[in-house]
Amino acid sequence: MQNIWSRFDSPYLICLLAVPMTALAQSAYNYTIIAPPDATYTTAACVNDINQVVGTYQVGFTSHGFSWTNGNYLTIDVPGATGGTDARGCNNLGAIAGSYTDAALTHGFVLRHNEFETVDYDVSSYNVTFLLGINNNGQIVGQAQNNITTYVNFIYDVDTQLFTTLSLPTTNYVIPYSINDYGVIAGTICSLPDMTCVHNGVPGSYSGFLYEHGALTIINYPNALETDVAGVNNLGQAVGVGKSMFVYLNGTFTGVPSPPASINPAALSINNSGAVLGIASFAGVVEAFVAAPVQSSGFVTTLATAGEIEAFAPESIVTAYGSNLSQGSVTATELPLPTSLGGTALTLIDSTGVSRIAPLFYVSPTQVNYEIPAGTTPGTASATITDGKGASQVGFLQVGAVSPGLFALNASGLVAAWVLPVVSGVQESLQLVYQTAGANAVIPLPLNVSAADTQLYLEMYGTGIRNAKEVTVAIGGLPVPVLFAGAAPGFAGEDQVNVGPLPAALAGKGNVPILLRADGLAANTVNVSIE
Fold it and tell me: What CATH number is attached to the domain comprising 378?
Protein backbone atom coordinates (compact mmCIF):
# COMPACT_ATOMS: atom_id res chain seq x y z
CA MET A 1 0.00 0.00 0.00
CA GLN A 2 1.09 3.62 -0.49
CA ASN A 3 2.78 5.17 2.53
CA ILE A 4 2.34 8.85 3.26
CA TRP A 5 5.03 8.45 5.95
CA SER A 6 7.71 7.23 3.55
CA ARG A 7 9.55 10.54 4.00
CA PHE A 8 10.60 9.31 7.44
CA ASP A 9 12.15 6.13 6.07
CA SER A 10 15.88 5.51 6.22
CA PRO A 11 17.11 6.88 2.83
CA TYR A 12 15.74 10.33 3.59
CA LEU A 13 17.08 10.34 7.12
CA ILE A 14 20.56 9.26 6.06
CA CYS A 15 20.68 12.25 3.71
CA LEU A 16 19.24 14.61 6.28
CA LEU A 17 21.60 13.70 9.12
CA ALA A 18 24.83 13.51 7.13
CA VAL A 19 25.67 17.04 8.32
CA PRO A 20 27.06 18.33 11.65
CA MET A 21 24.54 18.53 14.50
CA THR A 22 23.44 21.93 15.80
CA ALA A 23 24.30 22.33 19.48
CA LEU A 24 20.99 22.85 21.29
CA ALA A 25 20.01 22.30 24.90
CA GLN A 26 19.02 18.67 25.34
CA SER A 27 16.82 16.82 27.79
CA ALA A 28 17.67 13.40 29.20
CA TYR A 29 15.58 10.33 28.37
CA ASN A 30 15.22 6.63 29.10
CA TYR A 31 14.64 4.55 25.96
CA THR A 32 12.39 1.57 25.26
CA ILE A 33 12.78 -0.19 21.90
CA ILE A 34 9.56 -1.35 20.23
CA ALA A 35 9.61 -4.00 17.50
CA PRO A 36 7.04 -6.81 17.21
CA PRO A 37 8.49 -10.33 17.04
CA ASP A 38 9.71 -11.36 13.56
CA ALA A 39 9.30 -7.79 12.25
CA THR A 40 11.73 -6.83 9.49
CA TYR A 41 10.76 -3.16 9.69
CA THR A 42 8.84 -1.23 12.37
CA THR A 43 7.51 2.31 12.36
CA ALA A 44 5.20 3.93 14.88
CA ALA A 45 3.21 7.14 14.80
CA CYS A 46 1.39 7.62 18.10
CA VAL A 47 2.03 7.41 21.83
CA ASN A 48 -0.86 8.37 24.10
CA ASP A 49 -1.14 9.24 27.79
CA ILE A 50 -1.60 5.61 28.88
CA ASN A 51 1.70 4.83 27.14
CA GLN A 52 0.05 2.85 24.36
CA VAL A 53 2.05 2.94 21.13
CA VAL A 54 0.41 2.44 17.73
CA GLY A 55 2.28 1.78 14.51
CA THR A 56 2.99 -0.52 11.59
CA TYR A 57 5.42 -3.37 11.09
CA GLN A 58 6.40 -5.53 8.15
CA VAL A 59 7.13 -9.23 7.89
CA GLY A 60 8.65 -9.60 4.45
CA PHE A 61 6.56 -7.34 2.21
CA THR A 62 3.32 -7.57 4.23
CA SER A 63 2.32 -4.64 6.45
CA HIS A 64 0.41 -5.04 9.71
CA GLY A 65 -0.77 -2.48 12.21
CA PHE A 66 0.03 -3.01 15.87
CA SER A 67 -0.68 -1.72 19.34
CA TRP A 68 1.93 -1.97 22.11
CA THR A 69 1.33 -1.49 25.83
CA ASN A 70 3.87 -2.38 28.53
CA GLY A 71 5.63 -4.92 26.33
CA ASN A 72 2.48 -6.57 25.02
CA TYR A 73 1.82 -6.48 21.26
CA LEU A 74 -1.53 -6.71 19.51
CA THR A 75 -1.59 -7.11 15.72
CA ILE A 76 -4.15 -4.99 13.85
CA ASP A 77 -5.29 -6.33 10.48
CA VAL A 78 -8.46 -4.96 8.91
CA PRO A 79 -10.61 -7.79 7.49
CA GLY A 80 -10.39 -7.76 3.70
CA ALA A 81 -7.08 -5.89 3.60
CA THR A 82 -5.20 -7.56 0.78
CA GLY A 83 -2.54 -4.85 0.52
CA GLY A 84 -1.71 -4.37 4.18
CA THR A 85 -2.89 -2.40 7.21
CA ASP A 86 -1.25 0.82 8.39
CA ALA A 87 -2.10 2.03 11.94
CA ARG A 88 -1.26 5.70 12.57
CA GLY A 89 -3.34 7.53 15.18
CA CYS A 90 -4.50 6.79 18.71
CA ASN A 91 -6.22 8.60 21.55
CA ASN A 92 -6.67 8.07 25.27
CA LEU A 93 -10.11 6.51 24.78
CA GLY A 94 -8.79 3.47 22.91
CA ALA A 95 -9.63 4.56 19.35
CA ILE A 96 -7.09 3.81 16.61
CA ALA A 97 -7.06 5.34 13.12
CA GLY A 98 -5.21 4.28 10.00
CA SER A 99 -5.55 2.99 6.45
CA TYR A 100 -5.74 -0.30 4.60
CA THR A 101 -5.69 -1.41 0.99
CA ASP A 102 -7.95 -3.94 -0.72
CA ALA A 103 -8.21 -4.96 -4.35
CA ALA A 104 -9.81 -1.66 -5.35
CA LEU A 105 -8.90 1.25 -3.06
CA THR A 106 -6.92 2.46 -0.08
CA HIS A 107 -9.45 3.14 2.67
CA GLY A 108 -9.28 4.82 6.01
CA PHE A 109 -10.34 2.90 9.11
CA VAL A 110 -11.21 3.57 12.72
CA LEU A 111 -10.93 0.81 15.32
CA ARG A 112 -12.95 1.42 18.47
CA HIS A 113 -14.95 -0.77 20.78
CA ASN A 114 -13.20 -3.72 19.06
CA GLU A 115 -14.96 -2.93 15.78
CA PHE A 116 -13.54 -1.62 12.49
CA GLU A 117 -15.25 1.24 10.66
CA THR A 118 -14.24 1.97 7.06
CA VAL A 119 -13.85 5.64 6.15
CA ASP A 120 -13.71 6.85 2.52
CA TYR A 121 -13.48 10.41 1.24
CA ASP A 122 -15.50 10.78 -2.00
CA VAL A 123 -14.51 7.57 -3.80
CA SER A 124 -15.88 9.02 -7.04
CA SER A 125 -12.94 11.44 -7.13
CA TYR A 126 -10.26 9.93 -4.87
CA ASN A 127 -8.95 6.37 -4.71
CA VAL A 128 -6.85 6.83 -1.55
CA THR A 129 -7.96 7.89 1.93
CA PHE A 130 -5.29 8.24 4.62
CA LEU A 131 -6.34 8.72 8.27
CA LEU A 132 -3.39 10.01 10.29
CA GLY A 133 -3.90 11.54 13.76
CA ILE A 134 -6.91 11.31 16.09
CA ASN A 135 -7.63 13.33 19.24
CA ASN A 136 -9.79 12.63 22.28
CA ASN A 137 -12.73 14.47 20.69
CA GLY A 138 -12.85 11.93 17.86
CA GLN A 139 -11.47 14.38 15.28
CA ILE A 140 -9.11 12.83 12.72
CA VAL A 141 -6.80 14.64 10.31
CA GLY A 142 -6.22 12.96 6.99
CA GLN A 143 -5.57 13.27 3.31
CA ALA A 144 -7.35 11.93 0.22
CA GLN A 145 -5.40 11.40 -3.00
CA ASN A 146 -6.12 10.59 -6.62
CA ASN A 147 -3.25 8.78 -8.33
CA ILE A 148 -0.78 10.96 -6.38
CA THR A 149 -1.63 13.96 -8.55
CA THR A 150 -4.56 15.56 -6.74
CA TYR A 151 -5.11 15.73 -3.00
CA VAL A 152 -7.33 17.26 -0.34
CA ASN A 153 -6.73 17.50 3.40
CA PHE A 154 -9.61 17.07 5.81
CA ILE A 155 -10.82 16.68 9.37
CA TYR A 156 -13.15 13.73 9.93
CA ASP A 157 -15.49 13.53 12.92
CA VAL A 158 -15.87 9.95 14.11
CA ASP A 159 -19.22 10.55 15.82
CA THR A 160 -20.98 12.52 13.09
CA GLN A 161 -19.10 10.77 10.25
CA LEU A 162 -18.74 14.13 8.53
CA PHE A 163 -15.72 15.51 6.66
CA THR A 164 -14.59 19.12 6.89
CA THR A 165 -12.12 20.34 4.28
CA LEU A 166 -8.87 21.51 5.89
CA SER A 167 -7.63 24.57 4.03
CA LEU A 168 -4.47 26.18 5.34
CA PRO A 169 -3.50 29.73 4.29
CA THR A 170 -0.96 28.50 1.73
CA THR A 171 -0.94 27.14 -1.80
CA ASN A 172 1.92 24.74 -1.02
CA TYR A 173 1.61 21.00 -0.51
CA VAL A 174 0.71 20.19 3.10
CA ILE A 175 0.62 16.94 5.09
CA PRO A 176 -1.34 17.15 8.39
CA TYR A 177 0.03 14.44 10.66
CA SER A 178 -1.64 15.01 14.03
CA ILE A 179 -4.25 17.05 15.89
CA ASN A 180 -4.43 17.73 19.62
CA ASP A 181 -7.54 18.13 21.74
CA TYR A 182 -7.60 21.89 21.15
CA GLY A 183 -7.64 21.52 17.39
CA VAL A 184 -3.97 22.44 16.90
CA ILE A 185 -2.65 20.58 13.85
CA ALA A 186 1.00 19.62 13.30
CA GLY A 187 2.50 18.64 10.00
CA THR A 188 4.90 19.37 7.19
CA ILE A 189 4.64 21.88 4.36
CA CYS A 190 6.52 21.73 1.05
CA SER A 191 7.95 24.65 -0.88
CA LEU A 192 6.03 23.50 -3.98
CA PRO A 193 2.27 23.61 -4.60
CA ASP A 194 1.80 19.99 -5.66
CA MET A 195 2.68 16.46 -4.61
CA THR A 196 5.87 16.28 -6.71
CA CYS A 197 7.86 17.48 -3.69
CA VAL A 198 10.96 15.42 -2.95
CA HIS A 199 13.76 15.80 -0.44
CA ASN A 200 16.36 17.28 -2.74
CA GLY A 201 18.58 19.11 -0.27
CA VAL A 202 17.33 22.54 -1.34
CA PRO A 203 17.13 24.82 1.71
CA GLY A 204 13.55 25.28 2.85
CA SER A 205 12.14 22.59 0.60
CA TYR A 206 10.31 21.19 3.66
CA SER A 207 9.25 23.01 6.82
CA GLY A 208 7.26 21.94 9.83
CA PHE A 209 4.13 23.80 10.84
CA LEU A 210 1.53 24.27 13.54
CA TYR A 211 -1.94 25.42 12.51
CA GLU A 212 -4.31 26.75 15.17
CA HIS A 213 -7.71 28.11 14.22
CA GLY A 214 -6.57 30.05 11.16
CA ALA A 215 -3.06 30.94 12.36
CA LEU A 216 -0.16 29.16 10.60
CA THR A 217 3.24 28.95 12.33
CA ILE A 218 6.15 27.77 10.19
CA ILE A 219 8.86 25.80 12.03
CA ASN A 220 12.42 25.60 10.71
CA TYR A 221 15.14 23.90 12.74
CA PRO A 222 18.23 26.16 13.07
CA ASN A 223 20.55 25.81 10.05
CA ALA A 224 18.74 22.71 8.76
CA LEU A 225 18.05 22.28 5.06
CA GLU A 226 14.72 20.63 5.83
CA THR A 227 12.47 20.35 8.86
CA ASP A 228 9.64 17.91 9.54
CA VAL A 229 7.09 18.19 12.34
CA ALA A 230 4.86 15.18 13.01
CA GLY A 231 3.25 15.40 16.47
CA VAL A 232 1.81 17.94 18.93
CA ASN A 233 0.47 17.39 22.45
CA ASN A 234 -2.07 19.33 24.49
CA LEU A 235 0.66 21.48 26.06
CA GLY A 236 1.61 22.79 22.61
CA GLN A 237 4.88 20.84 22.44
CA ALA A 238 5.65 19.70 18.89
CA VAL A 239 8.19 17.06 17.86
CA GLY A 240 10.06 16.55 14.65
CA VAL A 241 13.45 16.27 13.01
CA GLY A 242 15.77 18.79 11.40
CA LYS A 243 19.47 18.15 11.77
CA SER A 244 18.45 16.11 14.80
CA MET A 245 15.30 15.27 16.75
CA PHE A 246 13.70 18.10 18.71
CA VAL A 247 10.85 19.26 20.90
CA TYR A 248 9.55 22.69 19.89
CA LEU A 249 7.57 25.02 22.17
CA ASN A 250 6.85 28.72 21.65
CA GLY A 251 9.82 29.29 19.35
CA THR A 252 12.34 27.27 21.39
CA PHE A 253 13.94 24.02 20.22
CA THR A 254 15.13 21.44 22.77
CA GLY A 255 17.15 18.54 21.44
CA VAL A 256 16.15 14.90 21.89
CA PRO A 257 19.29 12.69 21.93
CA SER A 258 19.41 9.65 19.65
CA PRO A 259 18.81 6.26 21.30
CA PRO A 260 22.04 4.36 22.09
CA ALA A 261 23.50 2.37 19.17
CA SER A 262 21.16 3.97 16.65
CA ILE A 263 21.43 6.10 13.53
CA ASN A 264 18.97 8.19 11.50
CA PRO A 265 16.39 8.90 14.20
CA ALA A 266 13.11 10.77 13.67
CA ALA A 267 10.68 11.96 16.35
CA LEU A 268 7.06 11.36 15.35
CA SER A 269 4.78 11.80 18.38
CA ILE A 270 4.75 13.25 21.90
CA ASN A 271 2.26 12.64 24.70
CA ASN A 272 1.24 14.99 27.49
CA SER A 273 3.93 13.56 29.78
CA GLY A 274 6.62 14.56 27.34
CA ALA A 275 7.38 11.00 26.20
CA VAL A 276 8.68 11.10 22.62
CA LEU A 277 7.95 8.35 20.11
CA GLY A 278 10.29 7.88 17.19
CA ILE A 279 11.99 5.50 14.81
CA ALA A 280 15.66 4.83 14.15
CA SER A 281 17.93 2.26 12.56
CA PHE A 282 19.43 -0.28 14.97
CA ALA A 283 22.08 -2.55 13.42
CA GLY A 284 20.53 -1.96 10.01
CA VAL A 285 16.93 -2.64 11.08
CA VAL A 286 14.42 0.20 11.47
CA GLU A 287 12.58 -0.04 14.81
CA ALA A 288 10.45 2.25 16.94
CA PHE A 289 11.34 3.62 20.35
CA VAL A 290 9.82 5.60 23.21
CA ALA A 291 12.02 8.17 24.93
CA ALA A 292 10.70 8.92 28.44
CA PRO A 293 12.12 12.10 30.01
CA VAL A 294 14.18 11.84 33.19
CA GLN A 295 15.16 14.51 35.68
CA SER A 296 18.84 15.18 36.29
CA SER A 297 18.46 16.91 39.66
CA GLY A 298 18.20 15.21 43.06
CA PHE A 299 14.42 15.08 42.80
CA VAL A 300 11.75 16.08 40.30
CA THR A 301 8.82 18.41 40.97
CA THR A 302 5.53 17.93 39.10
CA LEU A 303 2.08 19.45 39.26
CA ALA A 304 0.02 17.40 41.71
CA THR A 305 -2.94 16.95 39.35
CA ALA A 306 -1.22 15.30 36.41
CA GLY A 307 2.40 16.18 36.71
CA GLU A 308 3.53 17.82 33.53
CA ILE A 309 2.87 21.56 33.39
CA GLU A 310 5.85 23.78 34.12
CA ALA A 311 6.41 26.66 34.91
CA PHE A 312 4.44 26.22 38.15
CA ALA A 313 2.21 28.95 39.55
CA PRO A 314 2.55 30.42 43.03
CA GLU A 315 0.00 28.87 45.41
CA SER A 316 -0.28 25.76 43.23
CA ILE A 317 0.01 22.24 44.65
CA VAL A 318 3.07 20.36 43.45
CA THR A 319 4.79 17.08 44.27
CA ALA A 320 8.49 16.35 44.60
CA TYR A 321 9.50 12.76 43.81
CA GLY A 322 12.83 11.27 44.78
CA SER A 323 14.44 9.04 47.40
CA ASN A 324 15.41 9.59 51.03
CA LEU A 325 13.37 12.79 51.15
CA SER A 326 12.02 12.11 54.66
CA GLN A 327 12.55 9.82 57.60
CA GLY A 328 8.93 8.67 57.55
CA SER A 329 5.43 9.33 56.24
CA VAL A 330 3.41 12.18 57.78
CA THR A 331 0.22 13.94 56.60
CA ALA A 332 -0.85 17.46 57.54
CA THR A 333 -4.10 17.47 59.50
CA GLU A 334 -4.99 21.13 59.88
CA LEU A 335 -4.96 24.58 58.27
CA PRO A 336 -2.92 26.66 57.92
CA LEU A 337 -0.53 24.03 56.57
CA PRO A 338 2.63 23.38 58.58
CA THR A 339 6.07 24.14 57.17
CA SER A 340 7.59 21.06 58.80
CA LEU A 341 6.29 17.50 58.90
CA GLY A 342 8.22 14.78 60.72
CA GLY A 343 11.21 17.10 60.76
CA THR A 344 11.16 17.50 56.96
CA ALA A 345 11.04 21.03 55.51
CA LEU A 346 11.29 22.53 52.02
CA THR A 347 12.86 25.91 51.28
CA LEU A 348 12.20 27.61 47.95
CA ILE A 349 14.55 30.35 46.68
CA ASP A 350 13.06 32.24 43.74
CA SER A 351 14.74 33.96 40.80
CA THR A 352 15.29 37.16 42.81
CA GLY A 353 17.01 35.30 45.65
CA VAL A 354 14.10 35.56 48.10
CA SER A 355 13.82 32.49 50.35
CA ARG A 356 10.47 31.14 51.54
CA ILE A 357 9.48 28.05 53.54
CA ALA A 358 6.85 26.03 51.66
CA PRO A 359 3.62 24.81 53.28
CA LEU A 360 3.54 20.99 53.35
CA PHE A 361 0.63 18.60 52.71
CA TYR A 362 2.48 15.28 53.01
CA VAL A 363 5.99 13.87 53.29
CA SER A 364 7.40 10.38 52.81
CA PRO A 365 10.81 8.97 51.84
CA THR A 366 9.86 9.13 48.14
CA GLN A 367 7.39 12.02 47.95
CA VAL A 368 6.79 15.52 49.30
CA ASN A 369 3.52 17.33 48.48
CA TYR A 370 3.80 21.08 48.96
CA GLU A 371 2.36 24.45 47.97
CA ILE A 372 4.55 26.91 46.10
CA PRO A 373 4.59 29.90 48.45
CA ALA A 374 2.57 32.98 47.54
CA GLY A 375 4.68 35.77 46.11
CA THR A 376 7.29 33.50 44.52
CA THR A 377 8.77 35.42 41.58
CA PRO A 378 8.63 33.83 38.12
CA GLY A 379 11.83 32.27 36.79
CA THR A 380 14.14 29.47 37.89
CA ALA A 381 13.78 28.53 41.56
CA SER A 382 15.75 26.12 43.71
CA ALA A 383 14.00 23.83 46.17
CA THR A 384 15.93 22.36 49.10
CA ILE A 385 14.39 19.46 51.02
CA THR A 386 15.92 18.84 54.44
CA ASP A 387 14.93 15.69 56.32
CA GLY A 388 14.64 15.15 60.06
CA LYS A 389 18.34 14.28 60.38
CA GLY A 390 19.55 17.37 58.54
CA ALA A 391 20.37 15.73 55.19
CA SER A 392 19.51 18.00 52.25
CA GLN A 393 18.76 17.56 48.56
CA VAL A 394 18.37 20.30 45.95
CA GLY A 395 16.16 20.35 42.87
CA PHE A 396 15.24 23.07 40.40
CA LEU A 397 11.94 24.15 38.90
CA GLN A 398 10.47 26.91 36.80
CA VAL A 399 7.91 29.29 38.31
CA GLY A 400 5.37 31.17 36.20
CA ALA A 401 1.98 32.82 36.57
CA VAL A 402 -0.42 29.95 35.85
CA SER A 403 -0.04 26.16 35.60
CA PRO A 404 -3.56 24.77 35.17
CA GLY A 405 -4.30 21.25 36.33
CA LEU A 406 -7.53 19.40 37.14
CA PHE A 407 -7.74 16.65 39.73
CA ALA A 408 -9.00 13.19 38.74
CA LEU A 409 -10.78 10.58 40.85
CA ASN A 410 -9.36 7.48 39.15
CA ALA A 411 -6.65 6.34 36.78
CA SER A 412 -9.00 6.83 33.82
CA GLY A 413 -9.13 10.58 34.43
CA LEU A 414 -12.65 10.96 35.86
CA VAL A 415 -12.89 14.62 36.84
CA ALA A 416 -12.94 15.51 40.55
CA ALA A 417 -16.16 17.51 40.61
CA TRP A 418 -19.60 17.96 42.04
CA VAL A 419 -22.73 18.13 39.89
CA LEU A 420 -25.20 20.91 40.60
CA PRO A 421 -28.67 20.21 39.10
CA VAL A 422 -31.01 23.14 38.50
CA VAL A 423 -34.57 21.86 38.05
CA SER A 424 -37.17 24.31 36.79
CA GLY A 425 -34.89 27.15 37.88
CA VAL A 426 -34.37 25.80 41.43
CA GLN A 427 -30.96 24.60 42.63
CA GLU A 428 -30.91 21.13 44.12
CA SER A 429 -28.30 19.43 46.31
CA LEU A 430 -24.88 18.69 44.92
CA GLN A 431 -24.51 15.23 43.39
CA LEU A 432 -21.58 12.91 42.67
CA VAL A 433 -19.92 12.25 39.31
CA TYR A 434 -18.89 8.77 40.44
CA GLN A 435 -20.10 5.54 41.99
CA THR A 436 -18.20 2.68 43.56
CA ALA A 437 -17.98 -0.87 42.27
CA GLY A 438 -16.29 -3.98 43.62
CA ALA A 439 -13.27 -3.43 45.87
CA ASN A 440 -14.34 0.23 46.16
CA ALA A 441 -13.31 0.96 42.56
CA VAL A 442 -14.35 4.46 41.48
CA ILE A 443 -16.29 4.42 38.21
CA PRO A 444 -18.24 7.17 36.40
CA LEU A 445 -21.87 7.90 37.23
CA PRO A 446 -23.33 8.96 33.86
CA LEU A 447 -25.00 12.38 33.80
CA ASN A 448 -28.37 12.94 32.16
CA VAL A 449 -28.28 16.16 30.12
CA SER A 450 -31.47 15.38 28.19
CA ALA A 451 -34.15 16.25 30.74
CA ALA A 452 -36.13 19.21 29.41
CA ASP A 453 -36.59 20.91 32.80
CA THR A 454 -33.07 20.27 34.16
CA GLN A 455 -29.73 21.97 33.64
CA LEU A 456 -26.50 20.49 34.99
CA TYR A 457 -23.47 22.43 36.17
CA LEU A 458 -20.03 21.11 37.13
CA GLU A 459 -17.98 22.33 40.09
CA MET A 460 -14.47 21.13 39.18
CA TYR A 461 -11.35 21.19 41.34
CA GLY A 462 -7.74 21.72 40.36
CA THR A 463 -4.73 23.90 41.03
CA GLY A 464 -2.57 26.54 39.36
CA ILE A 465 -5.62 28.31 37.90
CA ARG A 466 -6.45 31.20 40.27
CA ASN A 467 -4.07 33.74 38.73
CA ALA A 468 -5.43 33.34 35.20
CA LYS A 469 -7.07 36.30 33.49
CA GLU A 470 -9.04 34.06 31.11
CA VAL A 471 -10.26 30.49 31.59
CA THR A 472 -12.08 28.52 28.88
CA VAL A 473 -13.54 25.01 29.02
CA ALA A 474 -14.70 22.61 26.31
CA ILE A 475 -16.50 19.36 27.11
CA GLY A 476 -16.77 16.77 24.37
CA GLY A 477 -15.50 19.40 21.94
CA LEU A 478 -18.29 21.87 22.82
CA PRO A 479 -17.57 25.20 24.57
CA VAL A 480 -19.16 25.48 28.01
CA PRO A 481 -19.55 28.81 29.86
CA VAL A 482 -17.12 29.36 32.76
CA LEU A 483 -19.06 30.94 35.61
CA PHE A 484 -16.25 31.08 38.18
CA ALA A 485 -12.54 30.28 38.30
CA GLY A 486 -10.53 30.99 41.42
CA ALA A 487 -9.35 29.79 44.80
CA ALA A 488 -11.57 27.14 46.43
CA PRO A 489 -12.79 28.52 49.77
CA GLY A 490 -11.36 26.80 52.82
CA PHE A 491 -8.58 24.87 51.02
CA ALA A 492 -4.86 25.45 50.58
CA GLY A 493 -3.64 25.60 46.98
CA GLU A 494 -6.88 24.22 45.58
CA ASP A 495 -8.79 26.02 42.84
CA GLN A 496 -12.40 25.72 41.74
CA VAL A 497 -13.88 26.11 38.27
CA ASN A 498 -17.66 26.22 37.85
CA VAL A 499 -19.04 25.59 34.36
CA GLY A 500 -22.42 25.07 32.78
CA PRO A 501 -25.01 24.41 31.81
CA LEU A 502 -23.77 21.25 30.12
CA PRO A 503 -24.95 21.19 26.48
CA ALA A 504 -27.81 18.86 25.69
CA ALA A 505 -25.92 17.99 22.49
CA LEU A 506 -23.61 15.83 24.65
CA ALA A 507 -26.40 13.30 25.21
CA GLY A 508 -25.34 9.77 24.33
CA LYS A 509 -21.63 10.60 24.00
CA GLY A 510 -20.44 8.40 26.89
CA ASN A 511 -17.05 9.40 28.30
CA VAL A 512 -16.18 12.86 26.96
CA PRO A 513 -12.96 14.83 27.52
CA ILE A 514 -12.86 18.05 29.51
CA LEU A 515 -10.34 20.52 28.13
CA LEU A 516 -9.46 23.58 30.20
CA ARG A 517 -7.20 26.45 29.18
CA ALA A 518 -5.96 29.17 31.53
CA ASP A 519 -4.44 32.16 29.76
CA GLY A 520 -3.94 29.90 26.76
CA LEU A 521 -2.16 27.11 28.67
CA ALA A 522 -3.78 23.69 28.52
CA ALA A 523 -4.52 21.66 31.63
CA ASN A 524 -4.32 17.88 31.74
CA THR A 525 -7.29 16.19 30.06
CA VAL A 526 -9.93 14.74 32.38
CA ASN A 527 -13.34 13.33 31.50
CA VAL A 528 -16.95 12.92 32.56
CA SER A 529 -19.56 10.34 31.57
CA ILE A 530 -22.77 11.38 29.79
CA GLU A 531 -25.84 9.18 29.36
Answer: 2.70.50.70
